[in-house]
Design brief:
The chain contains 13 helices and ten strands. With about 325 residues, the protein is α/β, with parallel strands linked by helices. The protein has two domains: about 210 residues, Spore Coat Polysaccharide Biosynthesis Protein SpsA, Chain A (Alpha-Beta Complex); about 110 residues, no CATH class. Strands 1, 2, 3, 4, 5, 6, 7, 8, 9 and 10 form a ten-stranded mixed β-sheet that branches. The radius of gyration is 20 Å and the shape is globular. The two termini are about 40 Å apart.
């Protein structure tokens, strides 16, 4: 039986902007959920586009309400509409280009139920790439699949968080608390929002290894960045992680391992972050000779760009403030547990 507004256990936010050829697929996947005790806000960030409102009217589902933004907010501000205090105990996010398997919400609630101290649960995702002919080609899953009943619980801070997010925000349920609903600064580049938000979720993180969502790699995306901007953001992510992570060679060694690849693009920020966090000796001692050679070669060939990485705090002061505050809250809460 469908949930009435005010009695649901999860509020789903479906965000859309000019993807009318994909939006029906996303909405249909929500309506098809075997867990039916949800309500949904569909947010349209193009005030001149009538299609999303027409689609909601045609669905004729009392659980779904339509919200047209009076002006285009952009992706970062639109995401802040999701992370706010509400009456429902959980929130979830569905972007217009992605879609869910029918059992997603049901399996996530079953997985998190035995863990009241865990705030975030998400599922593995199938990867789909849009071709030049606007067809979809399946490209495996984000994580290896280790059986339909398997879950993985990640302790935080985690070495992977130095350069990327562990979770997928389009395949999650998130417990509503004062910590998890802190808004990100509007100056935050959208590409960093998922990684930053994860730092605001204190405690352990739970993943269902069964792929129950579908992540679309579209030809057009709002997640745009320059290489230097990306590296500067990773400097801030790694620096704030190093300030509160275990000071062990094992942890820092795993950090290097997680950041390998992309021709050193993920490695360069680690050295700068280590210097700025007062952990340079630990960073250098935990690296392999090959890691250091890659970073040193790039720095010698690109001295101005390398020096520019040290300007990350000045370029993104609000990002740094958010990450430091999130880290302080997480440390305070872990100290109480």
């Amino acid at each position: 039986m469908a949930a009435a507004a005010g009695s649901a256990d999860v509020r789903v936010y479906l965000l859309t902007y000019r993807r009318n050829h994909l939006l029906p697929r996303a909405l249909d996947s929500l309506i098809a959920q075997t867990h039916t005790n949800w309500i949904c806000e569909l947010h349209n960030d193009d005030p001149d586009d009538p299609f999303p409102e027409t689609l909601v009217a045609a669905a004729n589902d009392r659980r779904i309400t339509y919200h047209r933004h009076a002006r285009n907010l952009g992706p970062t501000a639109s995401f802040n509409n999701v992370f706010k205090p509400i009456h429902e105990p959980f929130i979830s996010l569905l972007e217009d280009d992605n879609w869910w398997e029918p059992q997603l919400l049901e399996r996530l609630f079953a997985a998190i139920a035995p863990h009241p101290s865990i705030n975030l649960a998400w599922s593995n995702c199938h990867l789909w790439r849009e071709t030049g002919q606007h067809e979809w080609r399946r490209e495996g899953t984000i994580w290896p699949v280790d059986g339909h009943g398997a879950i993985t619980i990640f302790e935080t801070p985690h070495p992977m968080q130095a350069c990327r997010a562990i979770h997928s925000n389009g395949a999650m349920i998130l417990r509503v608390t004062s910590e998890t609903t802190v808004p990100t600064p509007l100056s935050t580049p959208f590409v960093a929002v998922e990684r930053m938000r994860e730092r605001a979720y204190p405690g352990r993180l739970l993943m269902v290894r069964e792929p129950l969502a579908n992540f679309a790699i579209t030809l057009e995306s709002s997640r745009r960045e320059t290489a230097d901007e990306s590296m500067q953001l990773m400097v801030l992510l790694a620096m704030t992680l190093m300030k509160r992570c275990p000071d062990t060679r094992e942890f820092f060694g795993r950090m290097w391992a997680e950041c390998r690849g992309a021709r050193g693009h993920l490695l360069r920020p680690l050295v700068v972050a280590g210097a700025m966090a007062g952990r340079l000796r630990r960073v250098l001692m935990s690296a392999s000779p090959g890691d250091l050679a890659v970073v040193a070669a790039w720095a010698m060939l690109n001295p101005r760009r390398f020096a520019g990485l040290f300007k990350a705090p000045a370029r993104f002061p609000e990002v740094l403030e958010f990450l430091e505050a999130a880290g302080a809250r997480a440390a305070a809460l872990s100290g109480k547990s």
